[in-house]
Amino acid sequence: MVNAMRILVISDTHRSLNRAIELVHEFSKRIDAVIHLGDNTEDVDFIRRNYRLPVYVVAGNCDYGSTAPHESVVEFEGKKVFFTHGHYYNVKYNADAVTKRALELGADLCLFGHTHAPHLQLGGDVIVMNPGSLSEPRGGSRPSYGIVKIENDRIIPMVIPYI
Asked: Is the dihedral of CA 152, 32, 132, 111 positive or negative?
């Protein structure tokens, strides 16, 4: 039997929840969890109330007063996933510091947001992914999100344009 897990990864929704709701609704029967990488954590409340999915969230730089942690580590199917918004790791310049933190934690996958632009780095000791922003893309990118599939001891990350 194949153990497989699919995780929807979104970031930087900034209270423009329509696209996030559409994605969660569309994928709700095909995903096992949602990770929101911050800006705005209030958006997660709707998803939690309306869908029977585990939802993991970290606070971003626009999440004033949020009680969500700034970083978290969760294990899925034996793979350790580190996720953070990224603003404490200067990700607008490069992914070096956030990648280093993921390695310190022994993570197999590192997820971050904040830049509003997608990023996918394969190879090396850790896979690094930023799903981009669903509501306010930057750097010439389009609205986007991520899907992470963990199957047969492999991590398959995908950044997908929102159409």
From this structure: negative
Residue 101: DSSP 8-state:
H
- The Cα-based distances of 113 to 3, 4, 79, 125 in angstroms read 28, 25, 20, 20
State the chain's maximal CA–CA distance in angstroms. 44
The CATH number of domain 4-161, selected from 1.50.10.10, 3.60.21.10, 3.40.50.720, 3.40.50.300: 3.60.21.10
The 10s digit of each residue's pLDDT in 64-87 is 988 999 999 999 999 999 999 999
What residues does each domain of the chain span?
4-161
The reported pTM is: 0.94
82 by Cβ neighbours in 10 Å (0-12 / 13-18 / 19+) ranks as buried
Query: Three-state SS for 100?
Result: helix
